[in-house]
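Researcher: Please translate sequence to C-alpha coordinates.
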Amino acid sequence: MSLTKINATAATLTKNRTEDSVVPTSGMCVTCIDGCIGMCEIGKSAYRGHEVIYPQPFGIITSGGEKNYPVDYSHFNILSGVIGAKGIEADSDKAIFPNVNLEVNFGHDKGLKFKLPFMIPGIGSTNIAKNNWEGLAIGTALAGTGLTIGENVVGMDPEAVFKNGNIVDTVDLKRRVKLFTDNQIDGYGAIVVQSNVEDTRLGVQEYALKELGVQCVELKWGQGAKNIGGEVKIKDLKKAQLLYERGYVVLPNPTEPHVIKAFESGAFTEFERHSRVGMVTEEGFAQRVEELRSAGAKYIFLKTGAYGPADLARALKFVSKYKLDLLTIDGAGGGTGMSPWRMMNEWGVPPVELHSLTYRYAKQLTDKGEHLPALAFAGGFTFEDQIFKGLAVGAPFVKLIGMARAPIAAAMVGKTIGNAVKNHQTPVYVERFGNSIDQIFVTANELRNKLGNTTFEKLPTGAIGLYTYYERLAQGLRQLMAGTRKFGLPYISRDDLASLTKEATEISGIPYIMDYQKEEAEKILMSK
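Model: Translation complete:
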Protein backbone atom coordinates (compact mmCIF):
# COMPACT_ATOMS: atom_id res chain seq x y z
CA MET A 1 0.00 0.00 0.00
CA SER A 2 1.40 3.38 -0.99
CA LEU A 3 1.97 5.87 1.84
CA THR A 4 1.23 8.79 -0.47
CA LYS A 5 -1.60 9.72 -2.80
CA ILE A 6 0.37 9.93 -6.00
CA ASN A 7 -1.71 11.25 -8.88
CA ALA A 8 -4.75 12.96 -7.35
CA THR A 9 -5.14 15.24 -4.38
CA ALA A 10 -7.23 18.15 -3.18
CA ALA A 11 -3.99 20.13 -2.83
CA THR A 12 -3.51 20.39 -6.61
CA LEU A 13 -7.24 20.25 -7.41
CA THR A 14 -6.89 16.93 -9.19
CA LYS A 15 -8.77 13.63 -9.03
CA ASN A 16 -8.91 10.24 -10.71
CA ARG A 17 -11.61 9.39 -13.20
CA THR A 18 -11.94 5.91 -11.64
CA GLU A 19 -11.66 6.96 -8.01
CA ASP A 20 -12.35 3.47 -6.67
CA SER A 21 -9.89 1.72 -9.00
CA VAL A 22 -6.42 3.23 -8.78
CA VAL A 23 -3.02 1.57 -9.31
CA PRO A 24 -1.26 1.87 -5.90
CA THR A 25 2.25 2.35 -7.28
CA SER A 26 1.51 4.97 -9.94
CA GLY A 27 -1.72 6.54 -8.76
CA MET A 28 -3.11 6.23 -12.27
CA CYS A 29 -6.59 5.00 -13.04
CA VAL A 30 -6.59 1.25 -13.65
CA THR A 31 -8.00 2.06 -17.09
CA CYS A 32 -6.54 5.24 -18.59
CA ILE A 33 -8.83 6.01 -21.50
CA ASP A 34 -8.25 7.96 -24.68
CA GLY A 35 -10.70 10.84 -24.59
CA CYS A 36 -10.37 11.73 -20.88
CA ILE A 37 -10.13 15.48 -20.31
CA GLY A 38 -7.30 15.03 -17.77
CA MET A 39 -8.62 15.50 -14.25
CA CYS A 40 -5.68 13.70 -12.63
CA GLU A 41 -2.29 15.28 -11.98
CA ILE A 42 -0.74 13.74 -15.09
CA GLY A 43 -3.62 15.00 -17.20
CA LYS A 44 -3.59 18.49 -15.73
CA SER A 45 0.20 18.63 -16.17
CA ALA A 46 -0.33 17.94 -19.88
CA TYR A 47 -1.85 21.39 -20.33
CA ARG A 48 -0.79 23.45 -17.28
CA GLY A 49 2.72 22.02 -16.85
CA HIS A 50 4.77 23.45 -13.96
CA GLU A 51 1.74 25.21 -12.46
CA VAL A 52 0.56 21.84 -11.15
CA ILE A 53 3.71 21.45 -9.02
CA TYR A 54 2.17 23.75 -6.41
CA PRO A 55 -0.92 23.51 -4.18
CA GLN A 56 -3.88 25.55 -5.41
CA PRO A 57 -5.62 27.96 -5.24
CA PHE A 58 -2.68 30.12 -4.28
CA GLY A 59 -3.07 32.87 -1.69
CA ILE A 60 -6.07 31.57 0.26
CA ILE A 61 -4.77 28.21 1.46
CA THR A 62 -2.12 26.68 3.67
CA SER A 63 -0.94 23.23 2.73
CA GLY A 64 0.43 20.19 4.55
CA GLY A 65 1.76 16.94 3.17
CA GLU A 66 -0.63 13.97 3.24
CA LYS A 67 1.97 11.22 3.33
CA ASN A 68 1.17 8.64 6.00
CA TYR A 69 4.51 8.17 7.75
CA PRO A 70 5.12 4.75 9.31
CA VAL A 71 5.60 6.32 12.76
CA ASP A 72 4.04 9.52 14.12
CA TYR A 73 3.21 11.00 17.51
CA SER A 74 0.04 8.90 17.77
CA HIS A 75 2.37 5.91 18.23
CA PHE A 76 3.08 7.10 21.77
CA ASN A 77 0.72 7.22 24.73
CA ILE A 78 0.96 9.49 27.74
CA LEU A 79 1.17 7.50 30.98
CA SER A 80 0.77 8.63 34.56
CA GLY A 81 0.55 7.29 38.08
CA VAL A 82 -1.10 7.92 41.41
CA ILE A 83 1.88 8.82 43.60
CA GLY A 84 2.94 12.36 44.48
CA ALA A 85 3.29 15.55 42.45
CA LYS A 86 6.19 17.56 40.99
CA GLY A 87 6.23 21.33 41.06
CA ILE A 88 3.51 21.61 43.70
CA GLU A 89 2.64 20.18 47.10
CA ALA A 90 1.20 16.65 46.92
CA ASP A 91 -2.15 17.84 48.23
CA SER A 92 -5.38 17.08 46.36
CA ASP A 93 -6.68 20.58 47.14
CA LYS A 94 -3.59 22.24 45.67
CA ALA A 95 -2.60 19.85 42.89
CA ILE A 96 -5.45 20.83 40.56
CA PHE A 97 -4.96 21.42 36.88
CA PRO A 98 -5.61 25.21 36.89
CA ASN A 99 -2.45 25.47 39.04
CA VAL A 100 -0.18 24.00 36.37
CA ASN A 101 2.39 26.64 35.39
CA LEU A 102 2.91 26.86 31.62
CA GLU A 103 5.33 29.79 31.61
CA VAL A 104 8.73 29.30 30.04
CA ASN A 105 11.87 31.45 30.21
CA PHE A 106 14.78 31.03 27.83
CA GLY A 107 17.64 32.87 26.16
CA HIS A 108 21.22 33.31 27.34
CA ASP A 109 20.01 35.52 30.18
CA LYS A 110 16.59 33.84 30.60
CA GLY A 111 15.22 37.20 29.51
CA LEU A 112 12.64 35.86 27.07
CA LYS A 113 9.44 34.94 28.83
CA PHE A 114 6.40 33.24 27.29
CA LYS A 115 3.10 32.62 29.05
CA LEU A 116 2.64 29.44 27.01
CA PRO A 117 5.20 27.09 25.41
CA PHE A 118 4.05 27.86 21.85
CA MET A 119 5.77 29.62 18.98
CA ILE A 120 4.69 30.44 15.43
CA PRO A 121 7.82 29.85 13.30
CA GLY A 122 8.50 31.97 10.24
CA ILE A 123 5.51 32.89 8.11
CA GLY A 124 6.53 35.48 5.60
CA SER A 125 5.64 36.93 2.24
CA THR A 126 2.74 34.68 1.23
CA ASN A 127 -0.70 36.24 0.88
CA ILE A 128 -2.12 33.88 3.48
CA ALA A 129 0.30 35.31 6.06
CA LYS A 130 -0.08 38.94 5.01
CA ASN A 131 -3.89 38.80 4.88
CA ASN A 132 -4.11 37.32 8.38
CA TRP A 133 -1.25 39.15 10.06
CA GLU A 134 -3.50 41.37 12.17
CA GLY A 135 -5.05 38.36 13.85
CA LEU A 136 -1.78 36.48 14.17
CA ALA A 137 0.25 39.37 15.61
CA ILE A 138 -2.35 40.72 18.02
CA GLY A 139 -3.53 37.26 19.09
CA THR A 140 0.04 36.14 19.75
CA ALA A 141 0.82 39.30 21.71
CA LEU A 142 -2.29 38.93 23.88
CA ALA A 143 -1.45 35.28 24.55
CA GLY A 144 2.13 36.19 25.48
CA THR A 145 3.87 33.82 23.06
CA GLY A 146 6.18 34.13 20.06
CA LEU A 147 5.73 35.00 16.39
CA THR A 148 8.34 35.00 13.64
CA ILE A 149 8.20 37.31 10.63
CA GLY A 150 9.43 35.02 7.91
CA GLU A 151 11.50 35.49 4.80
CA ASN A 152 11.05 37.95 1.92
CA VAL A 153 8.60 40.36 3.60
CA VAL A 154 10.74 43.40 2.79
CA GLY A 155 11.66 42.24 -0.70
CA MET A 156 7.99 41.70 -1.55
CA ASP A 157 6.90 45.10 -0.24
CA PRO A 158 6.26 47.37 -3.27
CA GLU A 159 6.52 50.41 -0.99
CA ALA A 160 9.93 49.47 0.41
CA VAL A 161 12.69 52.02 -0.19
CA PHE A 162 16.28 50.96 -0.89
CA LYS A 163 19.53 52.88 -0.98
CA ASN A 164 22.70 51.30 -2.39
CA GLY A 165 20.97 47.91 -2.27
CA ASN A 166 19.99 48.14 1.40
CA ILE A 167 16.56 48.71 2.92
CA VAL A 168 16.02 52.17 4.43
CA ASP A 169 12.24 52.16 4.80
CA THR A 170 9.45 49.62 4.57
CA VAL A 171 5.72 49.71 5.15
CA ASP A 172 4.96 46.00 5.57
CA LEU A 173 7.72 44.99 7.99
CA LYS A 174 7.09 48.09 10.08
CA ARG A 175 3.38 47.24 10.23
CA ARG A 176 4.01 43.61 11.19
CA VAL A 177 6.35 44.50 14.05
CA LYS A 178 4.11 47.29 15.33
CA LEU A 179 0.96 45.15 15.40
CA PHE A 180 2.74 42.86 17.85
CA THR A 181 4.60 45.38 20.00
CA ASP A 182 1.56 47.67 20.39
CA ASN A 183 -0.39 44.79 21.90
CA GLN A 184 2.32 43.09 23.93
CA ILE A 185 1.48 42.82 27.64
CA ASP A 186 4.05 43.01 30.46
CA GLY A 187 6.93 41.99 28.20
CA TYR A 188 5.60 38.50 27.50
CA GLY A 189 6.24 36.93 24.12
CA ALA A 190 8.56 37.99 21.32
CA ILE A 191 8.49 39.16 17.73
CA VAL A 192 11.31 37.65 15.68
CA VAL A 193 12.64 38.74 12.28
CA GLN A 194 13.96 35.92 10.11
CA SER A 195 16.20 36.19 7.07
CA ASN A 196 17.20 34.15 4.05
CA VAL A 197 19.82 34.84 1.37
CA GLU A 198 17.94 37.77 -0.21
CA ASP A 199 16.97 39.31 3.14
CA THR A 200 20.59 39.23 4.27
CA ARG A 201 21.74 40.93 1.08
CA LEU A 202 19.09 43.63 1.54
CA GLY A 203 20.09 44.31 5.17
CA VAL A 204 16.66 43.42 6.56
CA GLN A 205 17.72 42.27 10.02
CA GLU A 206 20.05 45.23 10.58
CA TYR A 207 17.18 47.56 9.65
CA ALA A 208 14.78 45.77 12.03
CA LEU A 209 17.29 45.96 14.88
CA LYS A 210 18.27 49.60 14.42
CA GLU A 211 15.04 51.18 13.20
CA LEU A 212 12.22 49.03 14.59
CA GLY A 213 13.59 48.10 18.01
CA VAL A 214 13.49 44.35 17.34
CA GLN A 215 15.55 42.29 19.80
CA CYS A 216 15.24 38.79 18.31
CA VAL A 217 16.51 37.71 14.90
CA GLU A 218 16.61 34.29 13.30
CA LEU A 219 18.91 32.69 10.77
CA LYS A 220 17.25 30.17 8.47
CA TRP A 221 18.47 26.85 7.13
CA GLY A 222 15.18 25.92 5.51
CA GLN A 223 11.95 24.36 6.74
CA GLY A 224 10.14 21.06 6.97
CA ALA A 225 8.09 21.65 3.83
CA LYS A 226 10.85 21.94 1.23
CA ASN A 227 14.56 21.88 0.52
CA ILE A 228 14.62 24.97 -1.72
CA GLY A 229 14.00 28.65 -1.05
CA GLY A 230 10.61 30.24 -0.55
CA GLU A 231 8.29 30.76 -3.47
CA VAL A 232 5.15 32.72 -4.25
CA LYS A 233 3.13 33.49 -7.36
CA ILE A 234 2.77 36.99 -8.80
CA LYS A 235 -0.21 37.99 -10.94
CA ASP A 236 1.05 41.51 -11.70
CA LEU A 237 3.69 42.14 -14.40
CA LYS A 238 5.05 45.33 -12.83
CA LYS A 239 5.50 43.62 -9.46
CA ALA A 240 7.21 40.65 -11.10
CA GLN A 241 9.62 43.06 -12.80
CA LEU A 242 10.21 44.90 -9.52
CA LEU A 243 11.11 41.66 -7.74
CA TYR A 244 13.41 40.69 -10.59
CA GLU A 245 15.19 44.02 -10.20
CA ARG A 246 15.53 43.39 -6.45
CA GLY A 247 17.49 40.23 -7.16
CA TYR A 248 14.91 37.47 -6.91
CA VAL A 249 14.67 34.51 -9.27
CA VAL A 250 11.45 35.20 -11.25
CA LEU A 251 10.12 32.68 -13.77
CA PRO A 252 9.59 33.24 -16.61
CA ASN A 253 11.87 36.26 -16.93
CA PRO A 254 9.43 39.22 -16.74
CA THR A 255 11.80 41.53 -18.61
CA GLU A 256 11.96 39.49 -21.83
CA PRO A 257 9.74 40.94 -24.60
CA HIS A 258 8.21 37.60 -25.68
CA VAL A 259 7.32 36.80 -22.05
CA ILE A 260 5.69 40.20 -21.57
CA LYS A 261 3.71 39.70 -24.78
CA ALA A 262 2.58 36.20 -23.73
CA PHE A 263 1.50 37.45 -20.32
CA GLU A 264 -0.43 40.40 -21.74
CA SER A 265 -2.19 38.11 -24.22
CA GLY A 266 -3.34 35.78 -21.40
CA ALA A 267 -1.13 32.82 -22.40
CA PHE A 268 -0.26 32.56 -18.69
CA THR A 269 -1.52 34.52 -15.71
CA GLU A 270 1.15 34.33 -13.02
CA PHE A 271 4.89 34.50 -12.47
CA GLU A 272 6.81 32.46 -9.90
CA ARG A 273 9.17 34.22 -7.50
CA HIS A 274 11.80 31.98 -5.90
CA SER A 275 14.43 32.52 -3.21
CA ARG A 276 17.91 31.08 -3.40
CA VAL A 277 19.17 28.19 -1.31
CA GLY A 278 21.67 29.11 1.38
CA MET A 279 25.22 27.77 1.40
CA VAL A 280 26.22 27.08 5.00
CA THR A 281 29.81 27.18 6.21
CA GLU A 282 30.97 27.44 9.79
CA GLU A 283 33.06 30.50 8.95
CA GLY A 284 30.10 32.23 7.32
CA PHE A 285 27.79 31.27 10.18
CA ALA A 286 30.18 32.60 12.82
CA GLN A 287 30.67 35.82 10.87
CA ARG A 288 26.92 36.40 10.49
CA VAL A 289 26.31 35.81 14.22
CA GLU A 290 28.99 38.36 15.04
CA GLU A 291 27.53 40.86 12.55
CA LEU A 292 24.09 40.56 14.13
CA ARG A 293 25.43 40.97 17.65
CA SER A 294 27.35 44.05 16.53
CA ALA A 295 24.15 45.40 14.96
CA GLY A 296 22.38 45.15 18.33
CA ALA A 297 20.72 41.72 18.34
CA LYS A 298 20.01 40.69 21.92
CA TYR A 299 18.82 37.20 20.99
CA ILE A 300 19.77 35.14 17.95
CA PHE A 301 17.88 32.03 16.83
CA LEU A 302 18.41 29.42 14.14
CA LYS A 303 15.69 27.49 12.35
CA THR A 304 16.60 24.33 10.50
CA GLY A 305 14.44 22.05 8.41
CA ALA A 306 14.08 18.32 7.82
CA TYR A 307 17.63 17.78 6.58
CA GLY A 308 19.64 14.63 7.26
CA PRO A 309 21.47 13.66 10.47
CA ALA A 310 24.76 15.38 9.57
CA ASP A 311 23.09 18.77 9.09
CA LEU A 312 21.05 18.32 12.26
CA ALA A 313 24.26 17.61 14.15
CA ARG A 314 25.85 20.63 12.46
CA ALA A 315 22.96 22.88 13.56
CA LEU A 316 23.20 21.69 17.16
CA LYS A 317 26.98 22.06 17.21
CA PHE A 318 26.88 25.57 15.72
CA VAL A 319 24.21 26.91 18.10
CA SER A 320 26.20 25.39 20.97
CA LYS A 321 29.57 26.73 19.89
CA TYR A 322 28.38 30.24 19.02
CA LYS A 323 26.00 30.56 21.98
CA LEU A 324 22.69 31.14 20.21
CA ASP A 325 19.44 31.42 22.16
CA LEU A 326 17.04 29.05 20.38
CA LEU A 327 17.18 26.32 17.74
CA THR A 328 13.93 25.29 16.01
CA ILE A 329 13.91 21.86 14.35
CA ASP A 330 11.11 21.46 11.80
CA GLY A 331 10.10 17.97 10.68
CA ALA A 332 8.99 17.07 7.16
CA GLY A 333 5.52 17.50 5.77
CA GLY A 334 4.18 20.95 6.59
CA GLY A 335 3.92 24.28 4.86
CA THR A 336 2.14 27.61 5.07
CA GLY A 337 2.66 28.81 1.52
CA MET A 338 3.37 27.39 -1.89
CA SER A 339 5.84 24.58 -1.31
CA PRO A 340 6.02 22.16 -4.26
CA TRP A 341 3.45 19.49 -3.45
CA ARG A 342 5.45 16.38 -4.32
CA MET A 343 8.46 17.78 -2.47
CA MET A 344 6.33 18.44 0.58
CA ASN A 345 5.31 14.79 0.67
CA GLU A 346 8.50 13.04 -0.39
CA TRP A 347 11.39 15.11 0.99
CA GLY A 348 13.00 15.20 4.40
CA VAL A 349 13.17 13.43 7.76
CA PRO A 350 9.71 12.96 9.36
CA PRO A 351 9.05 14.61 12.74
CA VAL A 352 9.35 11.63 15.13
CA GLU A 353 12.61 10.47 13.56
CA LEU A 354 14.07 13.99 13.39
CA HIS A 355 13.04 14.86 16.94
CA SER A 356 14.39 11.56 18.29
CA LEU A 357 17.75 12.20 16.62
CA THR A 358 17.72 15.70 18.10
CA TYR A 359 17.30 14.32 21.62
CA ARG A 360 20.13 11.85 21.05
CA TYR A 361 22.52 14.52 19.73
CA ALA A 362 21.54 17.09 22.36
CA LYS A 363 22.23 14.59 25.13
CA GLN A 364 25.57 13.75 23.59
CA LEU A 365 26.58 17.42 23.64
CA THR A 366 25.38 18.12 27.18
CA ASP A 367 26.95 14.92 28.52
CA LYS A 368 30.26 16.38 27.33
CA GLY A 369 29.48 19.55 29.26
CA GLU A 370 28.85 21.68 26.18
CA HIS A 371 26.41 24.60 26.11
CA LEU A 372 23.00 23.97 24.57
CA PRO A 373 20.39 26.68 24.03
CA ALA A 374 16.65 26.10 24.26
CA LEU A 375 15.23 23.89 21.53
CA ALA A 376 11.85 24.03 19.79
CA PHE A 377 10.19 21.22 17.87
CA ALA A 378 7.90 21.84 14.88
CA GLY A 379 6.22 19.60 12.33
CA GLY A 380 2.47 19.06 12.27
CA PHE A 381 1.60 19.89 15.90
CA THR A 382 -2.02 20.96 16.38
CA PHE A 383 -3.38 19.86 19.79
CA GLU A 384 -2.37 19.58 23.43
CA ASP A 385 -1.66 15.84 23.39
CA GLN A 386 0.84 16.24 20.54
CA ILE A 387 2.38 19.26 22.26
CA PHE A 388 2.86 17.27 25.46
CA LYS A 389 4.41 14.38 23.53
CA GLY A 390 6.77 16.69 21.64
CA LEU A 391 7.94 18.31 24.87
CA ALA A 392 8.39 14.87 26.44
CA VAL A 393 10.31 13.33 23.50
CA GLY A 394 12.73 16.26 23.62
CA ALA A 395 12.86 16.69 27.40
CA PRO A 396 14.69 18.31 29.09
CA PHE A 397 16.08 20.23 26.12
CA VAL A 398 12.90 21.24 24.29
CA LYS A 399 11.16 24.30 25.74
CA LEU A 400 8.73 25.25 22.94
CA ILE A 401 6.54 23.70 20.28
CA GLY A 402 6.34 25.50 16.94
CA MET A 403 3.04 25.58 15.05
CA ALA A 404 2.02 27.53 11.95
CA ARG A 405 -0.84 25.99 9.99
CA ALA A 406 -3.03 25.46 13.07
CA PRO A 407 -2.71 29.03 14.43
CA ILE A 408 -3.31 30.42 10.93
CA ALA A 409 -6.46 28.27 10.70
CA ALA A 410 -7.68 29.64 14.03
CA ALA A 411 -7.03 33.23 12.95
CA MET A 412 -8.75 32.68 9.60
CA VAL A 413 -11.84 31.16 11.23
CA GLY A 414 -12.00 33.99 13.76
CA LYS A 415 -11.77 36.54 10.93
CA THR A 416 -14.44 34.75 8.88
CA ILE A 417 -16.87 34.57 11.79
CA GLY A 418 -16.29 38.23 12.58
CA ASN A 419 -17.11 39.21 9.00
CA ALA A 420 -20.22 37.03 9.04
CA VAL A 421 -21.47 38.62 12.27
CA LYS A 422 -20.78 42.10 10.92
CA ASN A 423 -22.80 41.31 7.79
CA HIS A 424 -25.62 39.66 9.78
CA GLN A 425 -24.92 36.35 8.04
CA THR A 426 -23.86 34.15 10.93
CA PRO A 427 -23.70 30.52 9.69
CA VAL A 428 -26.20 28.10 11.25
CA TYR A 429 -23.37 25.96 12.59
CA VAL A 430 -22.09 28.97 14.57
CA GLU A 431 -25.44 30.66 15.26
CA ARG A 432 -26.35 28.03 17.86
CA PHE A 433 -23.84 29.76 20.16
CA GLY A 434 -25.28 33.22 19.52
CA ASN A 435 -25.23 36.11 17.07
CA SER A 436 -22.70 38.44 18.67
CA ILE A 437 -18.94 38.35 19.17
CA ASP A 438 -19.42 38.14 22.94
CA GLN A 439 -21.72 35.15 22.62
CA ILE A 440 -19.77 33.21 20.01
CA PHE A 441 -16.20 33.57 21.32
CA VAL A 442 -15.92 31.91 24.71
CA THR A 443 -12.95 34.09 25.76
CA ALA A 444 -14.68 37.38 24.87
CA ASN A 445 -15.68 38.15 28.46
CA GLU A 446 -12.16 37.44 29.72
CA LEU A 447 -10.60 39.67 27.07
CA ARG A 448 -13.15 42.44 27.56
CA ASN A 449 -12.43 42.42 31.29
CA LYS A 450 -8.66 42.35 30.77
CA LEU A 451 -8.44 44.99 28.04
CA GLY A 452 -11.44 47.20 28.73
CA ASN A 453 -14.42 47.78 26.46
CA THR A 454 -12.78 50.33 24.17
CA THR A 455 -9.75 48.19 23.36
CA PHE A 456 -11.80 45.01 23.08
CA GLU A 457 -14.17 46.56 20.54
CA LYS A 458 -11.18 47.34 18.30
CA LEU A 459 -9.80 43.79 18.38
CA PRO A 460 -9.85 41.99 15.04
CA THR A 461 -11.79 38.76 15.45
CA GLY A 462 -8.87 36.89 13.90
CA ALA A 463 -6.90 37.77 17.03
CA ILE A 464 -9.75 36.60 19.25
CA GLY A 465 -9.84 33.34 17.29
CA LEU A 466 -6.12 32.70 17.79
CA TYR A 467 -6.28 33.69 21.47
CA THR A 468 -9.25 31.37 22.03
CA TYR A 469 -7.53 28.48 20.28
CA TYR A 470 -4.46 28.98 22.46
CA GLU A 471 -6.72 29.11 25.54
CA ARG A 472 -8.07 25.68 24.61
CA LEU A 473 -4.55 24.29 24.09
CA ALA A 474 -3.41 25.72 27.42
CA GLN A 475 -6.27 24.21 29.40
CA GLY A 476 -5.90 20.86 27.65
CA LEU A 477 -2.14 20.83 28.29
CA ARG A 478 -2.67 21.70 31.95
CA GLN A 479 -5.08 18.79 32.29
CA LEU A 480 -2.62 16.33 30.74
CA MET A 481 0.21 17.64 32.92
CA ALA A 482 -1.85 17.48 36.09
CA GLY A 483 -2.75 13.90 35.22
CA THR A 484 0.94 13.03 34.97
CA ARG A 485 1.51 14.92 38.26
CA LYS A 486 3.75 17.48 36.53
CA PHE A 487 2.82 21.03 37.54
CA GLY A 488 5.48 22.89 35.59
CA LEU A 489 7.07 22.44 32.17
CA PRO A 490 10.56 21.55 33.54
CA TYR A 491 9.09 18.41 35.09
CA ILE A 492 7.85 16.87 31.82
CA SER A 493 10.13 13.95 30.95
CA ARG A 494 10.50 11.07 28.53
CA ASP A 495 9.26 8.81 31.34
CA ASP A 496 5.79 10.27 30.73
CA LEU A 497 5.54 8.38 27.44
CA ALA A 498 5.38 4.76 26.31
CA SER A 499 5.70 3.52 22.73
CA LEU A 500 2.81 1.55 21.27
CA THR A 501 4.96 -0.21 18.67
CA LYS A 502 8.43 -1.77 18.71
CA GLU A 503 9.33 0.42 15.74
CA ALA A 504 8.50 3.59 17.71
CA THR A 505 10.70 2.29 20.53
CA GLU A 506 13.57 1.58 18.15
CA ILE A 507 13.39 5.09 16.70
CA SER A 508 12.82 7.09 19.87
CA GLY A 509 14.40 5.07 22.66
CA ILE A 510 11.13 5.38 24.59
CA PRO A 511 10.19 2.01 26.15
CA TYR A 512 7.60 -0.25 24.54
CA ILE A 513 4.41 -0.16 26.58
CA MET A 514 4.75 -3.80 27.73
CA ASP A 515 8.25 -3.05 29.04
CA TYR A 516 7.35 0.29 30.64
CA GLN A 517 8.10 0.28 34.43
CA LYS A 518 8.65 -3.47 34.20
CA GLU A 519 11.35 -3.63 36.85
CA GLU A 520 9.50 -1.29 39.22
CA ALA A 521 6.34 -3.36 38.92
CA GLU A 522 8.28 -6.56 39.66
CA LYS A 523 9.79 -5.01 42.79
CA ILE A 524 6.34 -4.02 44.06
CA LEU A 525 4.97 -7.51 43.44
CA MET A 526 7.95 -9.20 45.10
CA SER A 527 7.95 -6.97 48.17
CA LYS A 528 6.60 -8.30 51.50
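Researcher: Any highlights?
Model: The chain is about 40% helix and 15% strand.
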